[in-house]
């Protein structure tokens, strides 16, 4: 409490340090730039984590987490084997192949219980994806 009263008595003291207006403008622009860079553009996604487990022969289990900034009516999904914002109705109805999750030369098939999909390559290799 004593320091507050001492500050109030000084005539040359102010709560904000005296800096030029250019300094404060640069500080404000830097803060805004840092805030903006942490945000994703609407309708885009980025991969946050990617884990691969190849401990079993002839089988690789991959888990990835994506961060998406989807527009209204969209939800995080997969398009062309990449995270993307897709129509929410596709996920709600579990019609996974409508979001075109496989690469161009692969065929898409729903799993029997609709918990995911398979992408079949021309050589016969099958990639199975299950949704959480």
TrEMBL record:
Keywords carried by this UniProt record: Signal
GO molecular function, one term: receptor ligand activity
GO biological process, one term: G protein-coupled receptor signaling pathway
Pfam families given in the database record: TAFA
Keyword Transmembrane annotated: no
Family recorded in the similarity comment: Belongs to the TAFA family.
Protein's UniProt name: TAFA chemokine like family member 5
Source organism of this protein record: Oreochromis aureus
Gene symbol of the encoding locus: TAFA5
């Amino acid at each position: 409490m004593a320091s507050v009263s001492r500050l109030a008595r000084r005539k040359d003291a102010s709560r904000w340090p005296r800096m030029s207006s250019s300094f404060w403008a640069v500080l404000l622009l830097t803060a805004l730039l840092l805030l903006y860079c942490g945000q994703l553009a609407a309708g885009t996604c980025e991969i946050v984590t990617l884990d691969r487990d190849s401990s079993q022969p002839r089988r690789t289990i991959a888990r990835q987490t994506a961060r998406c900034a989807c527009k209204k009516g969209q939800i995080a999904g997969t398009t062309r084997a990449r995270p993307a914002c897709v129509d929410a109705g596709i996920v709600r109805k579990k019609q996974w192949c409508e979001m075109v999750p496989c690469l161009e030369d692969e065929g898409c098939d729903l799993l029997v219980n609709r918990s995911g999909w398979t992408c079949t390559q021309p050589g016969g290799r099958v990639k199975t994806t299950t949704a959480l």
